[in-house]
């Protein structure tokens, strides 16, 4: 009888101990929540390569729906034809400042525009002061190389040719995609050759990739520098 009671006591004690062990291993926060709070802390504590005051949200980038046209830039040789009068037809090379010179209009800045955008800008300038209606066509006879630099936590960092306008994720894909150590943010540095200044755009890759916030997939210009920092978060392996 005593032996039976002892065995029952040991069995009950084992169950209680197992229950306590399971309770100790029960997580108090989900892994997704932990990553979210850690990423937020990482940014709020200024662990970034840039000052918070110099960053511009990705949504602030001007956008358009046409991403396939070639982007005009310094050194490109172009032909401009005005349907209404051949006297305004021009063949010229875009200057280092991004300008072309046309009869009547003088200097017109067309750098970082597509051919269609440049046509519209010239048409507006002509109809504003000189013509009732203007139909302009622009043809690129010679184009200079365009490139984008992708560095940081990507599989194949480097500088890549970008003959047509692309968005951020397409440029990251050219670099082989994000590496396993990539963090949740991305920085796009854009130079303004006219003012000799730079602007840095902050992109939340977590919102873009996991939540489908396409406004973060910004258009990339020639000579942009894309930097993907490594994650400083603690990675937890195994089941919790």
TrEMBL record:
Residues 68-140 form the Polysaccharide export protein N-terminal domain. GO terms for molecular function: polysaccharide transmembrane transporter activity. The lineage of its organism: unclassified sequences, metagenomes, ecological metagenomes. InterPro entries: Poly_export, Poly_export_N, Soluble_ligand-bd. It comes from hydrothermal vent metagenome. Residues 148-191 form the Soluble ligand binding domain. Keywords: Signal. This is Uncharacterized protein. It holds the Pfam family Poly_export.
């Amino acid at each position: 009888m005593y032996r039976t009671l002892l065995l029952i006591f040991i069995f009950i004690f084992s169950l209680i101990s197992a229950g306590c062990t399971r309770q100790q291993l029960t997580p108090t926060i989900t892994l997704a929540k932990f990553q979210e709070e850690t990423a937020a802390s990482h940014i709020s504590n200024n662990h970034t390569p840039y000052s918070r005051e110099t960053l511009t949200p990705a949504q602030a980038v001007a956008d358009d729906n046409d991403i396939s046209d070639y982007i005009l830039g310094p050194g490109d040789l172009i032909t401009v034809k005005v349907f209404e009068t051949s006297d305004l037809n021009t063949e010229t090379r875009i200057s280092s400042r991004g300008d072309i010179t046309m009869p009547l209009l003088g200097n017109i800045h067309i750098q970082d525009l597509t051919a269609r955008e440049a046509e519209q800008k010239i048409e507006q300038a002509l109809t504003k002061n000189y013509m009732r209606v203007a139909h302009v066509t622009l043809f690129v006879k010679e184009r200079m190389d365009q490139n984008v630099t992708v560095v940081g936590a990507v599989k194949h960092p480097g500088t890549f040719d970008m003959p047509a306008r692309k968005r951020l994720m397409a440029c990251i894909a050219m670099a082989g995609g994000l590496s396993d150590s990539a963090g949740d943010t991305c920085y796009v540095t854009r130079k303004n050759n006219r003012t000799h200044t730079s602007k840095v755009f902050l992109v939340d890759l977590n919102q873009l990739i996991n939540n489908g916030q396409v406004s973060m997939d910004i258009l990339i210009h020639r000579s942009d520098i894309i930097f993907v920092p490594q994650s400083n978060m603690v990675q937890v392996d195994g089941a919790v």
